[in-house]
Structure formats: structure tokens, C-alpha cells
Amino acid sequence: MKRLVATFLLAVVIVPHVLFAAEATNSHSTALARASIQYWSITDASQSGLDYTSDHTEVFWLKLTTAPGSGVEYFLNGKYSSGGNQRSWTYTYEDSGGTKQFHVRTSANGSTVSEGTLATTLNASTWYHLAFAYDASAGDIEVFVNGSSVGTITGLNNSLFNSSGAFEIGTFNNGDGNSTNGQFDSYLSYAADLDSTQVAALYTTPCNPSTTNLTSWWQFNNNGDDSQGSNDLTNNNSATFTTDAAYTCASAAPNPADVIFFD
User: Fold this and answer.
1) pTM (2 decimals)?
2) Quick one: CATH architecture of 2-254?
3) What are the pLDDT digits (tens) for 184-216?
4) What angle do CA 55, 262, 199 make, to 5 degrees?
5) b vs e for 118-144, b when ≥16 Cβ sit within 10 Å of the residue's Cβ?
6) Rg over CA atoms, the chain
């Protein structure tokens, strides 16, 4: 009888662990073609918890198909509609006169915009883990690449406008043409200003991200479903999926072959 009881208890302990591991599988990423203005979005009326007016952090993997040419801007994400003065925030990657840089914009009233840039080079055909941590009290955004800070953009607003615009990944303003040409994987949106230790943990152990203050998690495993909450995304203009994922959960680490590390 003692042996039967021990076997039963062991099964109770093991089963939840197996179910959790299955839920963390990362098998695909979504591929966006700039020429087709492909992107993912959720309307303001449908979203829950994405109306950030204060601290938040956007974390995701990005692999550019082509780097932007001179004067070209890839809008990565945001809740930013220029129609009707519904600007809140948006983060982009661009080439400004030969300088590759991140470009961020924030607005506290929906109309007036504060912005800043941070020079950083992202190579095409390479997966990068990116994080943008907005600190409302300081009015700045710290940018992380592959788990390490590459700088802070200062002089921004101390609050964000509660925009009625859609939350979008891969473009802005309902796909105005400034879309990203590349792949997104495992996008997490946090209602908090994550610090360097927290961001580094998300990079080194991507299969089991912290759920503290996590609003949404879009894994893009053949769909735009939110595995954390109810913010399922709409696929605009037939964005596709690929088995070229940023990382595999069997090793719980980034693909080692094509990730560039920063000192």
C-alpha cells in the first residue's frame, strides 16, 4: 500500500510540470512584408489593459528581412494614431542619413509629441531580443538589446495619453506604409518599468517569462492569440508564419547560431 501511495503522489507532482512545459513551446514566428503592409493589431474597444498612461515595457524578438534604407523608418509597435490627435506612444527603427537608430515618440495629450533617438545597428537576418522600458516619473525609455542596456532616451513625457487608437505590432496608424520588413516572435507587454535584471532574465530564459505585471503575451505560434490574457490580435493583410523561431524551448535559450551579443 505504501508503494501505491508514493506512485500516486509522484504522478501528481509531475503532471503539472509537463503541462506547463507544453504551454511554453515556441515553434513559429510571424513574418511581415513591408510591401504588403502586413501587421498585427487589436482595436481600442477590444483590448484590455493596453491603455498605458504610465510605466510599461514592450519586449519582443525581431529579425529584419532587410535593414531600412536611408530615410526609411520601420514602425515596430505602438498605440499611436495621428488621425484625430490620438497619439500615445510608438517605437521605430530607422536609417537617418546613414545612421541606424531607434526612434521613440510619446504624447501626454494626444497631439504634442516628445521624441528622441538612440543610435544602434541591427543587422538583417539576425534575431535580436529587444526591450523598451518606459519610466514615466523620469520621462525616459531605457532600451535593451539581447538583455543588455544600450542606452536611455530622455526628455520624454511624464505620462501617456489614453489613446483610442489601435494597439499595433509592425506598423502604426492602421498601416500607413511605414511597416516593418521582418519577423516578430514572442512579444510580451508589461504594465511596469522593468529593470536590467528582469530584462536579462527574459532574454536568458525566454520559455518561462515572469507573469508579474504581464498584460499580454503573443507567441505567434501559427496565430495571434494572447496566451496571457484576452487580447487576441487581428492579422492584417495576410501576415504569414514561419518555423524560423527566435528560440526553442527544448534548450530554453536563443538560437546560438545567429544571435549577436553586445558588450
Assistant:
1) 0.87
2) Sandwich (2.60)
3) 999 999 999 999 999 999 999 999 999 999 999
4) 30
5) eebebeeeebbbbbbbbbbeebbbbbb
6) 19
